[in-house]
Recover the amino acids of this structure.
Protein backbone atom coordinates (compact mmCIF):
# COMPACT_ATOMS: atom_id res chain seq x y z
CA UNK A 1 0.00 0.00 0.00
CA UNK A 2 2.92 2.34 0.71
CA UNK A 3 4.14 1.94 -2.87
CA UNK A 4 0.65 2.63 -4.23
CA UNK A 5 0.28 5.79 -2.14
CA UNK A 6 3.74 6.99 -3.16
CA UNK A 7 2.89 6.39 -6.82
CA UNK A 8 -0.31 8.42 -6.49
CA UNK A 9 1.56 11.30 -4.88
CA UNK A 10 4.22 11.21 -7.61
CA UNK A 11 1.48 11.56 -10.22
CA UNK A 12 -0.06 14.41 -8.25
CA UNK A 13 3.30 16.20 -8.07
CA UNK A 14 3.47 16.04 -11.85
CA UNK A 15 -0.04 17.50 -12.08
CA UNK A 16 1.00 20.21 -9.61
CA UNK A 17 3.90 21.21 -11.82
CA UNK A 18 1.67 21.37 -14.90
CA UNK A 19 -0.79 23.56 -12.96
CA UNK A 20 1.93 26.12 -12.31
CA UNK A 21 1.83 25.88 -8.52
CA UNK A 22 4.36 24.81 -5.91
CA UNK A 23 2.06 22.69 -3.77
CA UNK A 24 -1.54 21.68 -3.21
CA UNK A 25 -3.69 21.85 -0.08
CA UNK A 26 -6.04 18.86 -0.12
CA UNK A 27 -9.25 19.46 1.83
CA UNK A 28 -11.72 16.94 0.36
CA UNK A 29 -11.74 13.97 2.79
CA UNK A 30 -11.91 11.51 -0.11
CA UNK A 31 -8.87 13.07 -1.76
CA UNK A 32 -7.05 12.99 1.58
CA UNK A 33 -7.84 9.28 1.87
CA UNK A 34 -6.76 8.59 -1.71
CA UNK A 35 -3.36 10.23 -1.28
CA UNK A 36 -2.52 9.32 2.32
CA UNK A 37 -4.59 6.26 3.25
CA UNK A 38 -6.19 8.18 6.13
CA UNK A 39 -9.87 7.33 6.73
CA UNK A 40 -10.58 9.78 9.56
CA UNK A 41 -12.18 13.22 9.50
CA UNK A 42 -11.37 16.89 10.11
CA UNK A 43 -7.93 16.58 8.55
CA UNK A 44 -6.19 18.13 5.56
CA UNK A 45 -3.13 17.13 3.59
CA UNK A 46 -0.49 19.28 1.91
CA UNK A 47 1.69 18.04 -0.94
CA UNK A 48 4.65 20.27 -1.71
CA UNK A 49 8.13 19.41 -2.89
CA UNK A 50 9.13 16.00 -1.58
CA UNK A 51 6.84 16.00 1.42
CA UNK A 52 3.29 14.89 2.05
CA UNK A 53 1.96 16.33 5.29
CA UNK A 54 -1.19 15.19 7.08
CA UNK A 55 -2.64 17.80 9.43
CA UNK A 56 -4.78 16.12 12.07
CA UNK A 57 -5.65 16.38 15.76
CA UNK A 58 -5.33 14.27 18.89
CA UNK A 59 -8.50 12.27 18.13
CA UNK A 60 -6.94 10.76 15.04
CA UNK A 61 -3.19 10.80 15.59
CA UNK A 62 -2.94 7.10 16.51
CA UNK A 63 -5.10 6.16 13.54
CA UNK A 64 -3.05 8.39 11.24
CA UNK A 65 0.24 6.83 12.33
CA UNK A 66 -1.15 3.43 11.45
CA UNK A 67 -2.86 4.35 8.16
CA UNK A 68 -0.38 6.91 6.76
CA UNK A 69 3.13 5.42 6.83
CA UNK A 70 4.30 7.58 3.91
CA UNK A 71 3.23 10.94 5.46
CA UNK A 72 4.70 13.39 7.87
CA UNK A 73 2.00 13.72 10.49
CA UNK A 74 1.49 17.13 12.07
CA UNK A 75 -0.51 17.01 15.28
CA UNK A 76 -2.25 20.34 15.29
CA UNK A 77 -3.04 22.10 18.54
CA UNK A 78 -4.82 25.02 16.93
CA UNK A 79 -7.06 25.56 13.88
CA UNK A 80 -6.46 23.91 10.53
CA UNK A 81 -5.81 27.28 8.92
CA UNK A 82 -3.19 28.17 11.56
CA UNK A 83 -1.54 24.76 11.10
CA UNK A 84 -1.35 25.25 7.34
CA UNK A 85 0.22 28.66 7.86
CA UNK A 86 2.84 27.14 10.16
CA UNK A 87 3.75 24.39 7.69
CA UNK A 88 3.97 26.84 4.79
CA UNK A 89 6.19 29.16 6.84
CA UNK A 90 8.68 26.30 7.21
CA UNK A 91 8.62 25.60 3.44
CA UNK A 92 10.63 28.45 1.80
CA UNK A 93 10.18 27.16 -1.75
CA UNK A 94 6.40 27.21 -1.50
CA UNK A 95 5.45 30.51 -3.12
CA UNK A 96 2.15 29.59 -4.80
CA UNK A 97 -0.14 27.18 -2.97
CA UNK A 98 -3.04 25.58 -4.81
CA UNK A 99 -6.17 25.10 -2.73
CA UNK A 100 -8.93 22.63 -3.52
CA UNK A 101 -12.27 24.41 -3.93
CA UNK A 102 -14.13 22.34 -1.34
CA UNK A 103 -13.91 24.91 1.44
CA UNK A 104 -16.10 27.87 2.34
CA UNK A 105 -15.38 31.43 1.29
CA UNK A 106 -14.83 32.23 4.95
CA UNK A 107 -12.14 29.55 5.39
CA UNK A 108 -10.46 30.57 2.15
CA UNK A 109 -10.35 34.16 3.42
CA UNK A 110 -8.71 33.04 6.66
CA UNK A 111 -6.10 31.08 4.73
CA UNK A 112 -5.36 34.04 2.49
CA UNK A 113 -4.77 36.26 5.52
CA UNK A 114 -2.60 33.77 7.41
CA UNK A 115 -0.57 31.86 4.82
CA UNK A 116 2.71 33.37 3.62
CA UNK A 117 2.15 32.24 0.02
CA UNK A 118 -0.04 33.24 -2.88
CA UNK A 119 -3.19 31.12 -2.92
CA UNK A 120 -4.70 29.80 -6.13
CA UNK A 121 -7.95 27.81 -6.30
CA UNK A 122 -7.17 24.61 -8.16
CA UNK A 123 -9.68 21.80 -8.63
CA UNK A 124 -9.73 18.44 -10.32
CA UNK A 125 -6.09 17.38 -9.87
CA UNK A 126 -6.64 14.54 -7.44
CA UNK A 127 -10.07 13.75 -8.86
CA UNK A 128 -8.47 13.20 -12.26
CA UNK A 129 -6.17 10.58 -10.76
CA UNK A 130 -9.00 8.94 -8.86
CA UNK A 131 -10.88 8.13 -12.05
CA UNK A 132 -8.46 5.30 -12.90
CA UNK A 133 -8.85 2.48 -10.39
CA UNK A 134 -6.04 0.05 -9.67
CA UNK A 135 -6.63 -3.66 -8.99
CA UNK A 136 -6.91 -3.09 -5.24
CA UNK A 137 -9.59 -0.45 -5.66
CA UNK A 138 -11.59 -2.68 -7.99
CA UNK A 139 -11.37 -5.52 -5.46
CA UNK A 140 -12.78 -3.24 -2.77
CA UNK A 141 -15.68 -2.17 -5.01
CA UNK A 142 -16.38 -5.79 -5.94
CA UNK A 143 -16.29 -6.80 -2.27
CA UNK A 144 -18.70 -4.00 -1.42
CA UNK A 145 -21.09 -5.21 -4.14
CA UNK A 146 -20.91 -8.81 -2.91
CA UNK A 147 -21.67 -7.61 0.62
CA UNK A 148 -24.63 -5.55 -0.58
CA UNK A 149 -26.09 -8.50 -2.48
CA UNK A 150 -25.66 -10.78 0.53
CA UNK A 151 -27.47 -8.24 2.68
CA UNK A 152 -30.36 -7.95 0.25
CA UNK A 153 -30.59 -11.73 -0.05
CA UNK A 154 -30.92 -11.95 3.73
CA UNK A 155 -33.64 -9.32 3.82
CA UNK A 156 -35.76 -10.50 0.89
CA UNK A 157 -37.48 -13.36 2.79
CA UNK A 158 -38.77 -10.76 5.27
CA UNK A 159 -40.72 -8.91 2.58
CA UNK A 160 -44.32 -9.46 3.58
CA UNK A 161 -47.49 -7.49 2.90
CA UNK A 162 -47.68 -4.83 5.58
CA UNK A 163 -43.94 -4.19 5.93
CA UNK A 164 -43.05 -0.51 5.42
CA UNK A 165 -40.49 1.10 3.15
CA UNK A 166 -38.57 2.51 6.10
CA UNK A 167 -38.48 -0.89 7.81
CA UNK A 168 -36.98 -2.50 4.71
CA UNK A 169 -34.40 0.29 4.45
CA UNK A 170 -33.44 -0.30 8.07
CA UNK A 171 -33.17 -4.06 7.52
CA UNK A 172 -30.81 -3.55 4.58
CA UNK A 173 -28.59 -1.14 6.53
CA UNK A 174 -28.45 -3.50 9.50
CA UNK A 175 -27.62 -6.52 7.33
CA UNK A 176 -24.77 -4.58 5.73
CA UNK A 177 -23.49 -3.51 9.16
CA UNK A 178 -23.50 -7.12 10.35
CA UNK A 179 -21.08 -7.89 7.51
CA UNK A 180 -18.55 -5.30 8.65
CA UNK A 181 -19.45 -2.52 6.24
CA UNK A 182 -21.87 0.38 6.19
CA UNK A 183 -24.26 1.73 3.59
CA UNK A 184 -22.84 3.81 0.75
CA UNK A 185 -25.84 6.12 1.26
CA UNK A 186 -29.29 5.97 2.82
CA UNK A 187 -31.09 3.15 0.96
CA UNK A 188 -33.86 4.24 -1.37
CA UNK A 189 -36.80 1.88 -0.95
CA UNK A 190 -39.95 2.60 -2.97
CA UNK A 191 -43.20 0.66 -3.07
CA UNK A 192 -45.71 1.08 -5.89
CA UNK A 193 -46.19 4.66 -7.18
CA UNK A 194 -43.43 5.98 -4.91
CA UNK A 195 -40.96 4.48 -7.37
CA UNK A 196 -41.56 7.35 -9.80
CA UNK A 197 -39.65 9.63 -7.41
CA UNK A 198 -36.02 9.17 -8.42
CA UNK A 199 -34.66 9.75 -4.91
CA UNK A 200 -37.66 8.89 -2.79
CA UNK A 201 -37.16 8.90 0.98
CA UNK A 202 -38.52 5.67 2.48
CA UNK A 203 -41.62 6.30 4.56
CA UNK A 204 -44.63 4.59 6.07
CA UNK A 205 -46.06 3.22 2.82
CA UNK A 206 -46.68 -0.51 3.31
CA UNK A 207 -46.14 -3.34 0.86
CA UNK A 208 -49.26 -4.77 -0.73
CA UNK A 209 -50.00 -8.32 -1.87
CA UNK A 210 -49.53 -7.33 -5.52
CA UNK A 211 -47.03 -4.49 -5.68
CA UNK A 212 -43.84 -3.20 -7.27
CA UNK A 213 -40.56 -2.39 -5.56
CA UNK A 214 -37.55 -0.24 -6.43
CA UNK A 215 -34.46 -0.48 -4.19
CA UNK A 216 -31.35 1.67 -4.72
CA UNK A 217 -28.65 0.77 -2.20
CA UNK A 218 -24.99 0.00 -1.71
CA UNK A 219 -22.26 -0.98 0.74
CA UNK A 220 -19.05 0.81 1.68
CA UNK A 221 -15.86 -0.86 2.87
CA UNK A 222 -12.33 0.54 3.28
CA UNK A 223 -13.63 3.78 1.82
CA UNK A 224 -14.92 2.27 -1.46
CA UNK A 225 -18.56 1.97 -2.42
CA UNK A 226 -20.90 0.15 -4.76
CA UNK A 227 -24.13 1.60 -6.16
CA UNK A 228 -26.87 -0.85 -7.14
CA UNK A 229 -30.54 -0.67 -8.05
CA UNK A 230 -33.08 -3.41 -8.63
CA UNK A 231 -36.76 -3.19 -9.53
CA UNK A 232 -39.11 -6.12 -9.24
CA UNK A 233 -42.68 -7.20 -8.72
CA UNK A 234 -44.40 -8.74 -5.75
CA UNK A 235 -47.13 -11.17 -6.64
CA UNK A 236 -48.89 -10.39 -9.94
CA UNK A 237 -47.53 -7.66 -12.21
CA UNK A 238 -49.31 -5.81 -14.99
CA UNK A 239 -48.42 -6.15 -18.67
CA UNK A 240 -47.53 -2.45 -18.65
CA UNK A 241 -45.04 -2.94 -15.82
CA UNK A 242 -43.48 -5.97 -17.52
CA UNK A 243 -43.08 -4.04 -20.78
CA UNK A 244 -41.48 -1.10 -18.98
CA UNK A 245 -39.15 -3.35 -17.01
CA UNK A 246 -37.97 -5.06 -20.18
CA UNK A 247 -37.34 -1.68 -21.83
CA UNK A 248 -35.20 -0.54 -18.90
CA UNK A 249 -33.28 -3.81 -18.88
CA UNK A 250 -32.68 -3.63 -22.64
CA UNK A 251 -31.51 -0.02 -22.34
CA UNK A 252 -29.09 -0.94 -19.58
CA UNK A 253 -27.68 -3.85 -21.57
CA UNK A 254 -27.28 -1.57 -24.59
CA UNK A 255 -25.24 0.85 -22.51
CA UNK A 256 -23.12 -1.84 -20.89
CA UNK A 257 -22.34 -3.32 -24.28
CA UNK A 258 -20.92 0.00 -25.49
CA UNK A 259 -18.48 0.43 -22.61
CA UNK A 260 -14.89 0.29 -23.87
CA UNK A 261 -11.78 2.47 -23.83
CA UNK A 262 -12.30 5.54 -26.02
CA UNK A 263 -16.09 5.21 -26.11
CA UNK A 264 -17.88 8.56 -26.22
CA UNK A 265 -19.89 9.14 -23.04
CA UNK A 266 -22.57 11.21 -24.77
CA UNK A 267 -23.00 8.56 -27.46
CA UNK A 268 -23.55 5.87 -24.81
CA UNK A 269 -26.06 8.07 -23.01
CA UNK A 270 -27.91 8.80 -26.26
CA UNK A 271 -28.09 5.11 -27.19
CA UNK A 272 -29.52 4.22 -23.79
CA UNK A 273 -32.16 6.94 -24.03
CA UNK A 274 -33.11 5.84 -27.56
CA UNK A 275 -34.01 2.36 -26.32
CA UNK A 276 -36.39 3.89 -23.77
CA UNK A 277 -37.84 6.33 -26.33
CA UNK A 278 -38.40 3.55 -28.87
CA UNK A 279 -40.32 1.57 -26.27
CA UNK A 280 -42.94 4.32 -26.10
CA UNK A 281 -42.26 5.26 -22.49
CA UNK A 282 -41.03 8.70 -21.37
CA UNK A 283 -37.26 9.10 -21.26
CA UNK A 284 -35.74 9.61 -17.81
CA UNK A 285 -34.30 13.01 -16.89
CA UNK A 286 -31.24 12.03 -14.87
CA UNK A 287 -27.86 10.92 -16.22
CA UNK A 288 -27.63 7.35 -17.43
CA UNK A 289 -24.48 6.62 -15.44
CA UNK A 290 -21.64 7.99 -13.33
CA UNK A 291 -18.30 7.00 -11.93
CA UNK A 292 -17.96 5.45 -8.47
CA UNK A 293 -15.09 4.80 -6.11
CA UNK A 294 -14.44 6.72 -2.93
CA UNK A 295 -17.49 8.84 -3.83
CA UNK A 296 -20.97 7.77 -4.86
CA UNK A 297 -20.89 10.21 -7.78
CA UNK A 298 -17.60 11.03 -9.50
CA UNK A 299 -16.26 11.26 -13.03
CA UNK A 300 -16.92 10.01 -15.64
CA UNK A 301 -20.54 11.02 -16.17
CA UNK A 302 -22.90 9.69 -18.85
CA UNK A 303 -25.13 12.62 -19.67
CA UNK A 304 -26.28 14.70 -22.65
CA UNK A 305 -24.41 17.71 -21.22
CA UNK A 306 -21.10 16.02 -20.27
CA UNK A 307 -18.50 15.36 -22.92
CA UNK A 308 -15.87 12.68 -22.41
CA UNK A 309 -14.17 9.49 -23.53
CA UNK A 310 -13.98 6.41 -21.36
CA UNK A 311 -10.57 5.27 -20.13
CA UNK A 312 -9.25 1.87 -19.08
CA UNK A 313 -9.56 1.50 -15.32
CA UNK A 314 -12.64 3.66 -14.78
CA UNK A 315 -15.57 2.14 -12.88
CA UNK A 316 -19.02 3.53 -13.57
CA UNK A 317 -22.69 2.76 -13.22
CA UNK A 318 -25.26 2.22 -15.94
CA UNK A 319 -28.71 3.10 -14.57
CA UNK A 320 -31.57 3.89 -16.99
CA UNK A 321 -35.09 4.20 -15.67
CA UNK A 322 -38.76 4.68 -16.46
CA UNK A 323 -40.83 6.78 -14.06
CA UNK A 324 -44.60 7.03 -14.33
CA UNK A 325 -46.12 9.29 -11.64
CA UNK A 326 -49.04 7.64 -9.88
CA UNK A 327 -48.11 4.20 -11.27
CA UNK A 328 -44.57 2.94 -10.66
CA UNK A 329 -40.89 3.53 -11.22
CA UNK A 330 -38.23 1.19 -12.58
CA UNK A 331 -34.46 1.57 -12.49
CA UNK A 332 -31.78 -1.09 -12.96
CA UNK A 333 -28.21 -0.25 -12.02
CA UNK A 334 -24.91 -2.12 -12.07
CA UNK A 335 -21.26 -1.18 -11.64
CA UNK A 336 -19.00 -1.69 -14.65
CA UNK A 337 -15.23 -1.55 -15.05
CA UNK A 338 -13.66 -0.32 -18.28
CA UNK A 339 -11.04 -2.91 -19.28
CA UNK A 340 -8.35 -2.84 -21.95
CA UNK A 341 -10.55 -4.93 -24.26
CA UNK A 342 -14.00 -3.70 -23.30
CA UNK A 343 -15.71 -3.99 -19.95
CA UNK A 344 -16.39 -6.16 -16.93
CA UNK A 345 -19.42 -6.16 -14.64
CA UNK A 346 -18.06 -5.94 -11.10
CA UNK A 347 -21.46 -6.04 -9.37
CA UNK A 348 -22.64 -9.45 -10.54
CA UNK A 349 -25.60 -10.69 -8.55
CA UNK A 350 -25.32 -14.46 -8.30
CA UNK A 351 -27.42 -14.80 -5.17
CA UNK A 352 -31.04 -14.60 -6.22
CA UNK A 353 -31.28 -14.33 -9.98
CA UNK A 354 -31.82 -10.58 -10.27
CA UNK A 355 -29.34 -10.35 -13.14
CA UNK A 356 -31.36 -12.25 -15.72
CA UNK A 357 -33.21 -10.90 -18.73
CA UNK A 358 -36.66 -11.60 -17.33
CA UNK A 359 -38.61 -9.71 -14.69
CA UNK A 360 -37.80 -11.02 -11.18
CA UNK A 361 -40.92 -11.62 -9.12
CA UNK A 362 -40.95 -12.00 -5.36
CA UNK A 363 -43.45 -14.37 -3.88
CA UNK A 364 -44.81 -13.66 -0.42
CA UNK A 365 -46.84 -15.81 1.91
Amino acid sequence: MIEILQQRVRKLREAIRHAGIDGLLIVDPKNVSYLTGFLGEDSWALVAGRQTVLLTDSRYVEQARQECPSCRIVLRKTTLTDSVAQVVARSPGLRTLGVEPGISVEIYGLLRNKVAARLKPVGGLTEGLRQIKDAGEVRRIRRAAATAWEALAEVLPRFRPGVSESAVAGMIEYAIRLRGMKSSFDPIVCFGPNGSRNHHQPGSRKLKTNDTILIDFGAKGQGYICDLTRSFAVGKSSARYRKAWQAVYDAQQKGIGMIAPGADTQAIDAAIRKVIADSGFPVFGHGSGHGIGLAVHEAPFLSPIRKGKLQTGQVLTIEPGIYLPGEFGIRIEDDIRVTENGHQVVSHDWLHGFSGDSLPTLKTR
